[in-house]
Amino acid sequence: MARISASVYTSHVPAIGAALDQGKSGEPYWQKVFSGYEKSKQWIKANPPDVVFLVYNDHANAFSLDLIPTFAIGCAAEFQPADEGWGPRPVPMVRGHPELAAHIAQSVIQDDFDLTIANKMDVDHGLTVPLSLMFGQPPADDFRWPCAVIPFAVNVVQYPVPSGRRCYQLGRAIRRAVDSFDQPLNVQIWGTGGMSHQLQGPRAGLINREFDRDFLDRLIADPAALASMPHIDYVREAGSEGIELVMWLIARGAMNDKPPRVVHRFYHVPASNTAVGHLILENQE
Questions:
Q1: Domain residue spans in the chain?
Q2: Is residue 197 among the annotated active site residues?
Q3: Has 59 been annotated as catalytic?
Q4: Fewer C-beta neighbours within 10 Å, C or N terminus of the chain?
Q5: Residues 103, 197, 231, 268: which is the catalytic one?
Q6: Catalytic-labelled residue, pool 12, 97, 125, 278
Q7: Considering only CA atoms, which of 146, 190, 162, 187 is closest in space to residue 7?
């Protein structure tokens, strides 16, 4: 049977992708960010997944304000990097896993969570930046990601957005779905976005280190209680875009009920105008 072996949490700041693509990762400003992922890249080489179930938010590339699904699962065989206004990132096409994605959709919908089925969509920096951070940039002669990826897009752009509690419970439904899939797949679930940041208005540039560190503590030790935090607390303490952190609760909810093993934890301020958070948790058998 398939199993979820670990969860990965990371910010998906677009400027991180630009720094990688433009060869700036060794510059002093960016080196401080990328150094926090060196251990992660070694870990994933030693613990390669067959499939990554990647929770992210679309930034008006696959979906527009005309039509915004609350939860959308990518069931296609492949997903092209999106053109976000200056051309697609020079990264590989994302290879999907239609069989597992369809199984998860069937199971989760029968578990009373409404999903939108996406049989075609482009994926933007919300998905490709985390892949670059964890796997590095694939060499030109091997232009592919090392595993299949199931994109799972969550609306955290246009209110109303899903509650932390619903996201956490959805993660538990995803775990049940993976556990019932009859192929021996090693699955990792990644939650992306955040941490504290605000991109507009009088509080543009807001970063709240205390909130971010407390969120990481609670995500590890007491995610069920963290899931009850109302939206207004995210907005007040972490800025308008801090609401992206509810996506981390999907990944945490998909872990088993035993306390996880903390493999790596990293926090850095700033990357562009955002706090960068990163965490790797392994399931305890």
A1: 3-282
A2: yes
A3: no
A4: C
A5: 197
A6: 125
A7: 190
